[in-house]
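Predict the 3D structure for this chain.
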Amino acid sequence: MPDPTASHTRVSSLLEAALARGALAVGGVLLALAVAEAGYRVIDPFPYFPESEINRTEHGNLTEYHPLLGWRGVPGGRARFTTKNASVWLEHNAEGFRDVEPEERSPDKPAIVFLGDSFTWGYEVEFDELFVSLLRERREDFELFNRSPASRCPRSRNGTPRRNPSRAVRRRRARSASGC
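Done. Predicted structure below.
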């Protein structure tokens, strides 16, 4: 007749071994998560800036109101611009654009002028990472100009559209629906 205590000891030793393996697996997963978290905090590809550091002014005070043109870049303006996602150094050239200083045009090279929105202007991007700057490095046979303004809604200072004030209320409703 089989000994009942031997089968009981065998079941309990199997249970202990299974619990030990389970504890080891959970410990390994927790250790891997801790190492991943520490590595992510050291090499953070998407830094977070607290509310106290965020620049609440439009484009780091690099825009000014012009009665004819609306909002434009401040010529020669320089500022640190911080959002929740990035902190970048902004600098405008003498014409108020985020580009290299204008030089005398070469008649040998064709010119390409980039006009656009915040993507072309380089919102939350350092100057050397602007796509116009990267393209300028690769295509030296062209003269490239970034003439995109710092993106802003085309309104006057008081919030109404610059043109045709008789339709201001209707346009304001349409723009507020679009988020601009």
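The CA atoms of residues 110 and 142 lie 5 Å apart.
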